[in-house]
Amino acid sequence: MSAQDAAKRETAATSEVDAKRSRADQPKPFVSIPDNFDGYALDSFCIPKHYEDSLERILLPHGIIMDRVAKMARDIVSDLEYEPLTCLCILKGGHQFFADLVDRIKMLNESGPLSLPLRIDFIRAKSYEDDHSTGKVQIIGGDNMESIRGRNVLIVEDMIDTGNTMVKLLATLREYEPKTLRVASLFVKRTPLSNGYKPHCTSDRPSNTYPTRASPLLPLLMSTAFLDTGFEVPNHFVVGYALDYNEYFRDLPHVAILNDTGKEKYKMSSH
Ligand code: HPA
Ligand code: MG
């Protein structure tokens, strides 16, 4: 090959990498549930009898969640194309979203044309008691984190609320120097307690309009960890689809708003 051809080939390869990177950096659409959205009556859907008295309304029926997860999987696969990916499940709340998202990525791998070699791993990051943040994050099961060095990593989380858990987790994971870090969170809550970590996404409605308490780490994290969001939700405590209140409600298929009876009945101190 002539030096000229080699240079041409290198330029083409570089512009392909650039094109891929800029495609991956494009904001992705997400669904924003407005504050005045009423949700659905409990008796419109099947819910476990043991939770009937503890829920206000259904915010998102299971089927809508599944449809949104399918699209999130497609966005991830089309951004990464053939690149190997480690999906890191944040237990326990992320387990259902993780299982369904990985299932969808596997289905896309089977049907082509793109496919991503997948690895999976599981960690816990615990920060909640009752329905308020304790302000501390405990990372459990981080022993195997050397395995993410040089890899594309997708952190799969159920919910970003204050953002404190994710900011701390990203800072910790960055120490292992993964090739890329990306976060898929099924829910992002619109809350005045947000530290400002929010979706790199577009929506037909304005995103978090509350003033935020910015974390000093934010500019760095926002520029290095793309955040895919399923749904931006109003400032309610929601349960179901593996999201819990003191370990209850993970077995509810839909995402619903917890009522005062539920908060009292399943309070930490009463168990
Ligand atoms: N539900 C369950 N877990 C949570 C929530 C929520 O609304 N916010 C933060 N962790
Ligand atoms: Mg929880």
Automatic annotation (TrEMBL):
Basic and acidic residues composition bias: residue spans: 1-26
Positions in coiled-coil regions: none
Entry's Gene Ontology cellular component terms: cytosol
Domain of life: Eukaryota
Molecular-function GO term, any one: hypoxanthine phosphoribosyltransferase activity
SUPFAM superfamilies referenced in this protein's UniProt entry, alphabetically: PRTase-like
Positions of the Phosphoribosyltransferase domain: 59-193
Region entry Disordered, spans: 1-29
Pfam families the UniProt entry points to: Pribosyltran
BP GO annotations: GMP salvage; guanine salvage; hypoxanthine metabolic process; IMP salvage
Name of the protein in its database record: Phosphoribosyltransferase domain-containing protein
Organism: Monosiga brevicollis (Choanoflagellate)
